[in-house]
Amino acid sequence: MATPQSTVFLYKGTNRKGQKVEGEISSTSQALVKAQLTKQGIRPKVVRKKPKPLFGGGGKKIKPMDIATFTRQLATMVKAGVPLVQSFDIVADGSDNPNMKELILSIRTDVASGTSFAATLKKHPKYFDELFCNLIAAGEQSGALETLLDRLAVYKEKTEILKAKIKKALTYPIAIVLISLVVTGILLIKVVPQFESTFSSFGADLPAFTLLVLNLSEFTQEYWWIIIAAIVGFVFLFKRLYNSSPGVRKAMDRHLLKLPVVGTIMYNSILARYARTLATTFAAGVPLINALESVAGSTGNIIYEEGVLSIRDEVATGIQLNSSMRASGLFPSMMLQLTAIGEESGALDEMLEKAATYHEDIVDNTVDNLASLIEPLIMVVLGVLVGGLLIAMYLPIFQIGQAV
């Protein structure tokens, strides 16, 4: 059964001293708001839903890095001995994102009314996934919320930093390709037609290469909107197929891992996420089988997702984790050795953290070196596109010069 979504309500009333009070409170219904206020000693007079901004604004979008920062700040407050509810107030005051501040105050209100921290977070699945909520629940049940918050903060920070590096690695070549296409389009639409009017006065046959470029220019001028629509449609259709078809997603994820440079980054980022997530959940006291189920969804690649679920099934039958990982053929020798050492010594979480750090460093170094690795390819692409067009346009002029 789905958890009801929490809504922000505005209220006005009087406290036990007869003083007028007003504010905001998050709950699933107006009746629950009145009950919560009465429990806090407030006699409500007006309770209504907070209106949404006129144009759907209301501040910046809440990003995953905002959640990571919130987790780190909350971990710091709790570690310093500040009560949980007061910690929410302090963190909310320091947030410059109105939407994030509203989310924190909503969580604070629910926790202050007696709802557990984990149950409150489950009301906001858009920002707190099942893994996050389960680890908070484990921390509350074991009385080690301080430790779990710190581990979660490290996990979220490392995960978001890794995502940022991957985006950086993929954005650079994509941006170069887009710029090359734009430059080529401008040349075909604006520059080549100027040469075409000049060539028409030559009265001589044009080279085949020049004719090809002129025909391409005429096609681009006449059907540029179809070309753009086709590209947009292809991207939309591919994205939809990738999200809805496991077969397409599996084929795409498999080929991504085989790409030069980008494949190396994707492969090591998957291994880093696997090791980091498993280390965090296992250290929190989550049973290994349950931890593997959470890890499967965090890999970000359907090949590894299915592989981890298969490992989970084998571990459930009593097979050691390192043996199941070796049988899958998805993990490098070093990670297998570290996992085996961790299982034998009882320090699996520490060994997995070392494996995660190692693969994160590989991603970091590869991304840093990506510019120097891809620059020669960029020069070749730009040279072929731009240089080819220029040669095609000047080739008739050179031929006429030789004939004279």
Describe the structure.
- The chain is mainly α and 404 residues long.
- Helices cover 74% and strands 6% of the residues.
- The chain is built from 15 helices and 3 strands.
- It has helices at residues 30-39, 64-79, 84-93, 98-112, 117-121, 130-142, 145-199, 208-244, 246-258, 262-283, 288-298, 302-316, 321-328, 333-345, 348-403, and strands at 7-14, 20-27, 43-49.
- It has a 3-stranded antiparallel β-sheet.
- Helix 2 (64-79) crosses helix 3 and helix 7 runs antiparallel to helix 8 (208-244).
- The longest helix has 56 residues, at 348-403.
- The N and C termini lie far apart (86 Å).
- The mean pLDDT is 82.
User: Could you report the average pLDDT, rounded to the nearest whole number?
Assistant: 82
Q: The biggest beta sheet, please?
A: 3 strands, antiparallel
Taking strands numbered 1, 2, ... along the chain, how are they ordered across the largest sheet? 2-1-3
Sequence stretches where pLDDT stays below 50 over 5 or more residues: none
What proportion strand? 5-15%
Shape: flat
Radius of gyration: 29 Å
The helicity comes to over 70%
Number of strands: 3
Q: Report the span from N to C terminus.
A: 86 Å
Helix/strand order: EEHEHHHHHHHHHHHHHH
Class of secondary structure makeup: mainly alpha
Helix count, DSSP H or I runs of 4 or more residues: 15
